[in-house]
Amino acid sequence: MGNCWTSLQSCLTSKPSKPPYSVLGTPMPDTPSTRQKSRSGVGYGSLGGLEREQSGKSFDPTEREGLLATERAKKAKGGDRPKTYKERLIQRTNSTVGNLTDKYIIKEVLGVGSTSTCHKCVCIMTGKSFACKIIDKKHIEQRFRGLLSQFHVEIEVLKELQHPNIIRLEDVYSTNDKIYMIMEMMGGGELFDYVVDKGTLTEEEASRIVNKVTSAVVYMHSMGIIHRDLKPENLLLTHRPGHPGDIPEVKIIDFGLSKFLVNGAQAAKSFLGTRGYLAPEMLQRKDYSKSVDIWALGVIVFVLLCGCLPFDDDSGVPSDAAVKEKFILRFPKWAKNLSDSAKDLLMHLLDCDPSTRYTAEQALAHPWVTGKSVKPMNFLQSPRIIQTPRTPAGAAGRSGQQKKKDRVADLLKVRQEGEGKDKESPNKKKGGGGKMQRQNSL
Fold first, then answer.
1. Residue 129 to residues 187, 304, 378, Cα–Cα distance (Å)
2. Which helix (H) or strand (E) holds 32?
3. Does 421 show up as a binding residue in the annotation?
4. The three-state (H, E, C) secondary structure of 138-198, written as one string
5. Which residues pair with 171 in a beta bridge?
6. CATH number, domain 191-385, options 3.90.950.10, 1.20.1070.10, 1.10.510.10, 3.30.70.330
């Protein structure tokens, strides 16, 4: 009885203990897998799926009813204060129902980041492959205090989102020292790596890609969620195409910095994201809304069409007067064949004023995004311009954060060097005057 009570208390409080590592994980309730079980008649008890301890031993029904009666008595006396939103997220993430290894086989490492390790895993019953993202809670708290809550937020957000262009969360398992996120396998790698390797890209192809991503942003915003870290690295393909007619899906990943706008809130305050993709209002440390995702989407579209970042620098905290000067949209000389409709879209996405910047719905309805005004058979120069960071010898262990900095630095370098010095603005104003230099084809 004592052990059961201790286990229940640890699940109902916001400060989970941290015992030694265990290979057994426990899935969260209300993931697609558990919802399917519920629909098929495999129900969860009145503890909301807390019928198992970490050891895998089931609670005795008599003991469980006694524990429930005790909890009801405590609540009737007003002994429990209302939990904060953050505490409820942590409580749900540490819920327990069964064992990871009962359902999945963890296999080889697919990738290593600064905050997690990704393994391939295989469902025992179906043989289907998934990606298993493993987060070491102790490591996170020691190196990045406070970051663990971001994983709880990511889990909560992904449980709410079901869209063909947003990565799907299949299951979540938790021990007191690790979190295991079972997600769909994205075997195609980064979208921009695919574009570079493909070697060619037409406006029609780019329009279809942007349509898919924008559709996901529309859905995400309709659910009251801001991503806050949209960038090329967070756009992955389900698979690498095997033939010209094979069109893979592109999906948004990494919701660790995302924000729920709860209780009717329309704005957020935290300063976070990735250099090169931050909206002016965020750089100014102002309150911001979903429109920061639209700015980041504009930067992604610009890179996809032009092969470089749209602005030379976004460091510092510019004043209102400096913003308009700092973020004048100019197009590089090699993008002179870009259609007027594509430039019009970018002007609306990269509007410095968030109140007049396009919404996700407006972007999705734009003629270029729908494909109605795309210039046919217009081949873009971006595949040969985009610079993808290559890991130097002996640097295979670079952190994920360092790789992000390298990617942004490479795209910024293209902007600043050679062709980036000779720019053309949408209103025909010329900027710079540097001699154009040929970029090596990748």
1. 10, 30, 38
2. helix 32-39
3. no
4. HHHHHHCCCCHHHHHHHHHHHHHCCCCCECCEEEEEECCCEEEEEEECCCCCEHHHHHHHH
5. 182
6. 1.10.510.10
Beta-bridge partners for 423: 332, 431
Along the 442 residues of the chain, how does pLDDT read in single tens digits?
A: 444 444 434 444 444 433 333 333 334 434 444 444 343 333 222 222 222 223 333 334 444 455 455 555 655 555 455 555 445 554 444 444 458 989 999 999 998 988 899 999 999 999 999 999 999 998 898 888 878 888 888 999 999 999 999 999 999 999 888 999 999 999 999 999 988 888 888 999 999 999 999 999 999 999 999 999 999 999 999 988 877 767 789 999 999 899 988 777 788 888 888 989 999 999 999 999 999 999 999 999 999 999 999 998 667 667 888 888 889 999 999 998 999 999 999 999 999 999 999 999 999 999 999 999 999 899 998 888 885 443 333 333 344 555 555 666 666 666 666 444 444 444 443 333 322 222 322 2
Rounded Cα distance between 77 and 85, Å, is 22
Answer yes or no: 229 catalytic.
yes
Joined tokens for residue 418:
């050679």
- Active-site residue identified among 171, 229, 254, 406: 229
Cβ distance 272 to 227 under 8 Å? no
Rounded CA gap, 235 and 85, in Å?
29
Please tell me the distance from the alpha carbon of residue 83 to that of residue 312, in angstroms, as a whole number: 45
Which tokens in the block code for residue 99?
A: 């064992």
Q: Quick one: tokens of 109?
A: 């490492």
Q: How is the chain split into domains, by residue range? A: 14-40+51-72+84-184, 191-385
Q: Is 206 exposed, middle or buried (0-12, 13-18, 19+ CB in 10 A)?
A: buried
Q: Domain 14-40+51-72+84-184: which CATH class?
A: alpha beta
Q: For residue 388, with 0-12 CB atoms within 10 Å meaning exposed, 13-18 middle and 19 or more buried, which class applies? A: middle
Rounded distance between C-alpha atoms, residue 111 and residue 35, angstroms: 29
SS (H, E, C) 48-91: CCCCECCCCCECCHHHHHHHHHHHHHHHHCCCCCCCCHHHHHHH
Q: Tens digits of per-residue pLDDT, 77-118? A: 554 555 554 455 544 444 444 589 899 999 999 989 888 999
